[in-house]
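Notes to self after the Tuesday call (sharing in case useful).
The group wants a holo model before anyone commits to mutagenesis around the pocket. I volunteered. Ligand is iron/sulfur cluster. Logging inputs and output together so the record is complete.
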Amino acid sequence: MAERIDGVRKLFTSKSARVDTNRGDLYYQQLFDTCRARLDALREQPAVNRLDFDSLLTDEGQDRREFMKWVSAVTAMLMLPPMFTPLVAEAAELMNRLPVVWLELQDCAGNSEALLRSDGPKIDEIVLDIISLEFHESLMAPSGHQAEKQLEDAMEHFKGNYLLFVEGSIPVGAGRDWCTIGASGETFLDHLNRVAENAAAVVAVGACATFGGIPAAAPNPTGAVGVMDVVKGKPVINIPACPANPANMVGVVLHYALTGQVPELDSLLRPKFAFGYRIHDNCERRAHFDAGEYVEEWGDEGAKNNFCLYKMGCKGPMTFNNCSIVRYNEGVNWPIGVGRGCIGCSEPDFWDKYAYERPMANANIKAPTGGVEKTVDQFGLGLLTAAGIGIGIHAVASAVAGKREEGGEG
Amino acid sequence: MSKRHIVVDPITRIEGHLRIEAVIDENNTIVDAYSSSTMFRGIETILQGRDPRDCGLLAMRICGVCTGTHYQRSIEAVEDAFDITIPKNARIVRNLIQGALYVHDHLVHFYHLHALDFVDVVSALSADPAKTAEEARKWAGVAGVSPYTDGESEFKAIQERVAKFVKQGRLGIFGNGYWGNKHYKLTPEQNLIGVAHYLQALDIQRDLAKMQAIFGGKNPHPQSIVVGGVTCVQDIQNPARIALFKQLLSDGTKFVKQAYLPDVYMAGTMYADEATDSKATFTELIGGKGVGGTGGGLLNYMSYGDFRLDDTGFYKAQTLFPSGIVYGGDLSKVEAVDHEKIAEDVTHSWYEGSEPLHPYNGQTIPKYTGLDKRDDGIAYLKTGEKYSWIKTPIYNDTRVEVGPLARMIVGVASKDERITKYVTNFLKRGNLPVSVLFSTVGRTAGRAIETELMADVMMEWVDELAANAAAGDLRTWTEFDFDKVSVKTKGMGLAEAPRGSLGHWVRVEDGKVANYQAVVPSTWNAGPRDYKGRMGAYEASLIGTKVADPEQPLEIIRTIHSFDPCIACAVHVVDTKGKSLGVYKLDSQCSI
Ligand code: SF4
Ligand code: SF4
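Result:
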C-alpha cells in the first residue's frame, strides 16, 4: 500500500500535471516539421468527403478573416505558438480525411447535445460537415438494420483509420449482459471492443466514458467502467467533464489531424492542453479567494458581489479543466459565473468525492495563503480512494504504452 | 402464416437505447408491437444515502436532453419535503431555464430528430428553387408571416451544397436513409424547404441553448439551482444579460414562427389524410369511438401541470399548463390528477415484483431474463415474459399518454384560455380538423403549438424578472434549517418535462436520502404491456399502421419519433428496501 501511495504522490506532484508552454525553439521547430509532413501526407490521402472548405465558409456566411480568428484561438488553446496558426488552418481544411464513428453506451446523450452546441463561431458546423461523421445514433437518418449496416460499412471502408468517439460507460459487472445493442443483442462490451478494434484511436468523451461517471458512482449497480478499462492495445484519449466541453472535442480532432498523434496526455489520459491546469488557477473570482472574501450562504451579500464560492463547496482548487478559460455555449457563462461553484466533473469519481455543496472537511485551504498549490496537492492525496489509485496507476501504464506506440509526443 | 416480425434496433435519432418489434400481416399492416429499452444504469440506487441537497445534480444526469428538468424536479421534491417556498426571482429564473429548454428541445426534435421521417433529402435535389421559394411563401402565408428562408437564390445555394454532399459518395449520417420510400409524401420543393430549415436550425438551436446558459451556467446540464432557490444573482441584476436573453429569444421566436410552424402546416396538410383516417387506429381495434388517425394510440392523455405563475408555493400556485386527464380523446371532460393513483407495474419489465406499487413504495430488483437467442443473427424479445428495462406506469388502472400533445389536449379540455387560443389558431390557420390532433401528425403539431406559446410567454417572464430586479428585489434564496427539516420527511416534484409528465419522489431520514424514485415521461409512453396485457402508448400507436416497405421501417420510426423518445431517463432502479446493492457513506467528506 505504501508503495502505491508513493506512486500516486509522484503522479500528483510530478510535472505531468502542469503544462509547459515554452519548450524552446528547437522543440517547436521539430514539431513544426512533423506537422508539415503529416499535413502533406494527409493531403495525399483521398478525401472521405469532398466538400470544398472555402465554399463551405461562404455558405456558412463566414469569411476567411473570421475563420482565421478562430484558428488563432484554437492554436492558443492547443498551447502552440503563433507560428503554428497556418498549419492549424490547414489541418481544419484537411479534416475531411478523418472519418469519425460515435458510439453511445450507458449515456444520457449529454455529450451529443454538447457536440451540437459546439462553439467557436459557427466553425463547428463546418467541422461537423467536414469530419465525415459516419455513424452517430442520435443524429443519423436510418434506424435498425440499415443503421447497423452503415456502421459495418464504415468499419470496413476505413479500417484502421477512423477515430472512435465513445459516450457513456460500459457495464462489466452485474450489468454486463443487461445492456445490448442491435438486432443480435450484442452486449455493450462486445460492441465497443468490436468497433474499437479497427479504430485509429479511441476518444472517450464525458465523465461516463472516461472514468465511469454517474453509473459508476457508489454503489455502481451495473459495474460500470470507462473506455480505458476495456479497450486495450489502442491509444485512448480521455475528454472528461459532464458533459465534455465541445471545444475540447474539436481540439482533439484538430490535433490529430495536425500531428497524426494523440495530444500530450496527463496521467489520467487527458490532453494537457485542456486539463493541464486547475479551474482555480484561472478563476474570475480568484482575487476574492486570495482576499478571503467568500459567499457564506446562497443569496447573501457575498453572492451579490460575486465573492469566491469556496465555502459553498466550489471544487475549483482540485479540478483540472479549462472551463474557466473556454467557458460554455460560446463563452456565455460557466458554473462559477452563475454562482454555483465547480463540482469537479472532469475528475475521476467526482460524484462520490466532489459533487456536493460544502467544502471538503480536510481541504485545509485558508485564504490568503499563497501556498494553495501545496495544500491542494496534500488533500488531493488524502482523498484518493483505492479505486482512484488503481485508475491512476493504470493510467500511467497506458500513457506510457500509448506514447511508445505513437512514437513520441505531439 | 404470412405474418412477419420486424425488429428495429437501434431506433436512432432518439435519446437512449430503444428496440421496437412489430408484427405485420399479409397486407403489411402492423397487428402487434412491442417496445423495449435495452440499457440500464441504476441512478436511483446511486442517490440513496446522499445528502438531499446534492440530489439535483445527480438526478439531472438521468437525462442529457431534458437537461435541467430532472434537476428542477429533484430540487423541488426536496423543497416540498422541507416545506420551502422559493422567492419570486428564483421561480421566474427556473421557469426561464425550463422554458428555454422547451423551445430548444422541441426545435431540435422537429428538425434533427424527426424531420427526416417526413423529408426525403435526396428528393430535394430535383426541386426547382424558384418554385421552392413560392412554396415557402405559401406555407408561411398560412401561418400569417413571411417565410424565414425567402428567395430562389438562397434555396439554390442550399440545394447545390446538398448536391455536392450527395455526389461525393459517402453520405455520413445521411447514408442508408429511407430515401425514395413511397410513404414520403412531400414534393421535391417541399423537401428542399425541409432540408434548408434542417441546416439553419443547427445554428438556431445553438443560440437557443445559450438562453439556458445565461441563468443556468451551461447547457447541457445547468448548475444554478439549489434547494431554496437559485444562485445566479449576478445574472439577474445585469441588464446586459437580460438584453442578451431577450435578443436570443426573439431571434429564436422568429425561426419558430416563420419556419417551424409553416413547416408543420406543410407536413400536416400533406399527411392530413392519414392523420384523420380513424380506420387505421388502435381505438377502432379495441372497439373505441374511432377518433383521430394513424398513430393515435391510447387516446388517454395526462398532464401534471407546470410553470408556476405566482408565488403561492408548490401545487397551490396557478400554472401555465393545467393538470388533468382526458380519456378516449373526449375533449368535453377533464378529470383532476390524483397522484395517489399513480402506480408502476413490472409484469413485463426486467424487475422482480408482482403488483403495481405507488412510487413512494416502489421496489425494483433487477431480474434480467434476456432475449431469445436465434440462429439467424436476430435475438427476439421474449414478449410473453419480461422484455424491457422500462417499467409500466399506470394511472387509476389505465394506460395514459403524456407529452406536449397531452398538455394541449388537457389545456383545451380544461378550457384554459391561452392554450385554447393557440390550439384553435393553429387548426384554423392550417384549415385542419380537431381530429387531426389524435394521431402521429397531431403529436408533432402539439409540440409546435406549444413551442410558439412558450416562446411568446417567456418574453413576458423575462420582463417580469428584469422589473423585479430593477425594483430592488434581489432575493434568490429562502433560508431553512437543514438539521431541523431533514429529520424525517418526504416530498415530490411533479411537473412537465418537454416530453411529458415527470415526477420525482424522495424520502429523507436523518439528513440522508432514504428512498428515491423518478417516474419519467418516456416511462409512461414507452413502457411495455401491463399486468392485464394492455399496451403502452408506443405500442398502441403502431397498431393498424400500414408499412410501405417492411425493409424500410419508415412509418414505425415516424410514429415512435412523434413521441420524442428519451429512453435513458425511462430506465431506473429504485429503493430495494433492505436489499440495497451496496452501502454508501458520505459522512467522512461531507462536514462543513
Ligand atoms: S458524462 Fe455526464 S453528460 Fe455525459 S453521459 Fe455521463 S452524465 Fe451524461
Ligand atoms: S474556490 Fe472556486 S470560486 Fe473560489 S477562486 Fe477557486 S475556483 Fe474560483
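Two things stood out.
Residues 386-406 of chain A form the longest helix (21 residues).
Chain A touches chain B through 104 residues (CB under 8 Å).
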